[in-house]
Amino acid sequence: MRIRQMTALLAVGLLVAGCGRGGGGTSAGTEDDPITIGVVNAAEPYWQTFIDLAAADGISVELQNFSDYQLPNQALADGQLDLNQFQHLQFLAQFNVNAGTDLVPIGATAVYPLGLYSLRHSSLDSIPDGGQVAIPNDPTNQARALLVLKAAGLVALTGGGNSFSTTADIDQDASTVTVTAVDAAQTAIALQDVDAAIINNDFVGQAGLTLSDALYADDPSSPDAEPYINIFVARAADADNETFARLVNIYHDPSVTDGVIESSGGTGVIMDNSPADLQRILAYIEDNFRQAS
């Protein structure tokens, strides 16, 4: 999932499979019983590369495309899918806690860095004390944007901040800028009127910018970026499924990952965290979410 509003609807891409298999079981990966993976971007060319490589390895795969981010996790929990790949750990944690499910990450895919942009200033140092910074106002992106500003040295957050921080957690006395939260789609427009803005990748182009224009972007290898690692997800009973693990490895073939990076406009950073590491991060986020609720 690139950095976008989690509740937004996507335009329907290519529907590669029908309604899933149902029944709560796990597909065998044969032509008669293919492994069904829920995605939100089935039309991206790298998915066909992935399917072809899986077939060459003896695994038959079908994709089921969704136009609503809220549906692939429920479909997986209900047994209509074998896997899904569309979200990061933060989104999965919130779904698990809210829905009472125990879906688990079994492999990492990528992180899409979130950048701070300015039309008025060419460096962080030139942003003045008391400068105005716009950030997205939806909970997931707002928290991540605040962590980016913290890492950039522009704001201080009470308790150091986490993936559930809000503007209420800003320590105003220890911060050098004033932060205003606006609709994510408005951050590129707000750039005309503020000193800088955190802009989701989906809207950077609207401002005539690319990630290389960012004054600062979060580091995919930092702990603050861990909640935003995108993942393959399975039901808990399938966490150790060997065929699924082979599919994660196939996704990391350069012919696939090169396509993933190209599809992201060069912003994607491929990640290879182990399932155990991903599940550790997920448990930590879920604990934080329960405490924040």
Q: What topology, given as strand order, has the largest sheet? A: 2-1-3-11-4
Order of helices and strands: EHEHEHEEEEHEHEHEEHHEH
Task: Provide the gyration radius in Å.
Answer: 19 Å
Percent of residues in β-strands: 15-25%
Q: In the CATH scheme, what's the topology name of the largest domain?
A: D-Maltodextrin-Binding Protein, domain 2
Largest sheet: 5 strands, mixed
Q: Please report the first level of CATH classification, the CATH class of the largest domain.
A: Alpha Beta
Low-confidence segments:
3-20
The number of distinct helices, counting runs of at least 4 residues, comes to: 9
User: End-to-end distance, in Å?
Assistant: 24 Å
Number of strands: 12
* Total individual domains: 2
Structural class by helix and strand composition: alpha/beta
In words, what does this structure look like?
The protein has 293 residues and is an alpha/beta fold. It has two domains: 35-111 and 229-292, Periplasmic binding protein-like II (D-Maltodextrin-Binding Protein, domain 2); 115-218, Periplasmic binding protein-like II (D-Maltodextrin-Binding Protein, domain 2), CATH 3.40.190. The chain is built from nine helices and twelve strands. The protein has helices at residues 45-56, 71-77, 89-99, 139-151, 187-190, 201-204, 242-251, 254-263, 275-292; strands at 35-39, 61-65, 83-88, 104-108, 110-111, 115-117, 131-136, 177-182, 196-199, 216-217, 230-234, 269-270. The strands form three sheets. It has a five-stranded mixed sheet with strand order 2-1-3-11-4, sandwiched between helices. A five-stranded mixed sheet has the order 8-7-9-6-10. The protein has a two-stranded antiparallel sheet with strand order 5-12. The protein is globular.
